[in-house]
Amino acid sequence: xxxxxxxxxxxxxxxxxxxxxxxxxxxxxxxxxxxxxxxxxxxxxxxxxxxxxxxxxxxxxxxxxxxxxxxxxxxxxxxxxxxxxxxxxxxxxxxxxxxxxxxxxxxxxxxxxxxxxxxxxxxxxxxxxxxxxxxxxxxxxxxxxxxxxxxxxxxxxxxxxxxxxxxxxxxxxxxxxxxxxxxxxxxxxxxxxxxxxxxxxxxxxxxxxxxxxxxxxxxxxxxxxxxxxxxxxxxxxxxxxxxxxxxxxxxxxxxxxxxxxxxxxxxxxxxxxxxxxxxxxxxxxxxxxxxxxxxxxxxxxxxxxxxxxxxxxxx
Length: 315
Known about the structure:
The chain is α+β, with helices and mostly antiparallel strands.
């Protein structure tokens, strides 16, 4: 251990040599620790992390895990993964050593998560519980596969929740027509839901649309991007999957409606976003429309199911 006290500042400094994963000798030099103990602890954890030693703390391992994965994931996927780890996993295990976490710890953690309730007194959905559980398991799988951890404590416990979501809901054509009548007082809401229902595009794809994505002459809608709200910023990303890049044929009536809508927009250039609204706004409008029209409440994503049912001739 190589720590020393800076007499003039009254703080401690870490200075140590180590060998990185490429076999190169590097120097760790960090100042400003209030106590010798803090400096020694930092040096120990840092060197364990750089040497990929599983005896490091769980919190330090998670940092390595995220560093390993970040270049391989889409930005929004990475942020979702990071959010789950920092809010649902780290608060319980951050101070423990990776190798000290056992099966009973995982079981107790799962029980804590299962007891969590939102402001309405509701617990997490089975699919979200499954996602949280799978993320914890993924951390330990990464540790056993790439860091030589001997045992995965999640393996014996199993997962929370269920992979299969609850029964899909959808609207018939008549139910949608009943709903859309309530949207006519707000043109942006009206045209947004018209596109969602008649084309089956995703919510993020709708919010990313610009004028150049709509070819009224050829009656084609080009889907090439998706909208996300990440870290309080509007971010345009690639669609969900490679197959999500697609062209959708537009019916005549929808082309006519879109042409009318473009005329309402101020300076509708090729790069103008057609719907500068949020997902929260759409959810609020969906709730309002269902209440005013009397049709059953469904999720916005269920409009995709409704479109598929319609296109397959069920209604």
